[in-house]
Task: inverse folding
């Protein structure tokens, strides 16, 4: 499953990054130190954080993409940093819970294939 | 060891948002040098936590990364207030970070524990009113 597959399915707004990046799992969290030590390479990270440090954490952990949920809006400099670092930022109005539930469904679908 | 590669960075204490620049640079350099993703991840996360700490708790500092044949060494040095009780500071959940830092997603008291977890050795030398020096090594 690729980023470009989840964008229409979850109704996401894509701001930056690589739509062809493969997604192998999902991680949810807002405490950046915690996320840094638990999120894995190629996962989709769902958070309500939208500050610039999100870009640094996403880049260091090399997650496939970041969904900024619940209508949180990153500032322009955050989007610029994401573009510069090749971090895939996606926006959603949905709650973290419903996004995670939908991701779980999509990942299960893929596994069954 | 004179044949080590050395990267030096000044970590700006004024700018919390630029924290992470040094670790991002190191990540890029290590990738160019062909290190495995696991090594790169461990070095860059440990360094990022250290960088954030220097910005949040010490008003900035400097970071040096040495690439030796057997390990990668990260040396972080600041002239901040120092750490009164290093053992306590190393405990997961211990934090003196202010609320504005917490609102940004840091200040969970996991920085130093993460640095220890991600490296093969870590020493903390700190003196109140003088500063803190942290040396971390990741075996390659
Ligand atoms: N470079 C430093 N200078 C002074 N104090 C520090 C430094 N690094 C860490 N500390 C102290 O150790 C505590 C724990 O650090 P850490 O585990 O990174 O958690 P956090 O940064 O989330 O508070 C900090 O809250 C601070 O009191
Ligand atoms: Mg910290």
Result:
């Amino acid at each position: 499953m690729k980023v470009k597959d989840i964008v229409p399915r979850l109704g996401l707004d894509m701001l930056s990054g690589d739509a062809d990046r493969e997604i192998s799992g999902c991680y949810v969290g807002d405490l950046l130190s915690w996320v840094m030590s638990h999120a894995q390479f190629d996962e989709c990270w769902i958070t309500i954080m939208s500050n610039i440090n999100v870009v640094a954490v996403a880049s260091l952990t090399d997650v496939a993409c970041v969904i900024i949920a619940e209508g949180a809006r990153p500032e322009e400099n955050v989007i610029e940093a994401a573009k510069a670092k090749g971090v895939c930022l996606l926006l959603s109005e949905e709650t973290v819970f419903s996004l995670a539930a939908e991701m779980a469904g999509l990942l299960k679908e893929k596994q069954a294939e | 060891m004179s044949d080590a590669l050395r990267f030096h960075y000044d970590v700006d204490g004024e700018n919390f948002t630029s924290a992470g620049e040094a670790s991002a640079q190191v990540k890029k350099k290590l990738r160019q040098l062909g290190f495995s993703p696991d090594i790169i991840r461990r070095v860059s996360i440990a360094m990022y936590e250290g960088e954030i700490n220097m910005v949040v708790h010490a008003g900035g500092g400097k970071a040096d990364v040495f690439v030796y044949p057997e390990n990668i060494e990260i040396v972080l040095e600041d002239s901040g207030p120092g750490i009164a009780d290093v053992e306590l500071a190393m405990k997961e959940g211990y934090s003196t970070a202010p609320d504005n830092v917490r609102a940004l997603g840091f200040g969970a008291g996991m920085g130093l524990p993460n640095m220890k977890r991600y490296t093969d050795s870590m020493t903390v030398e700190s003196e109140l009113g003088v500063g803190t020096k942290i040396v971390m090594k990741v075996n390659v």
Observations:
- The pocket of adenosine-5'-diphosphate (ligand 1) is lined by residues B 49, 53-54, 56-58, 78, 80-83, 89, 94-97, 106-113, 132 (CB under 6 Å).
- Chain A has five helices and five strands.
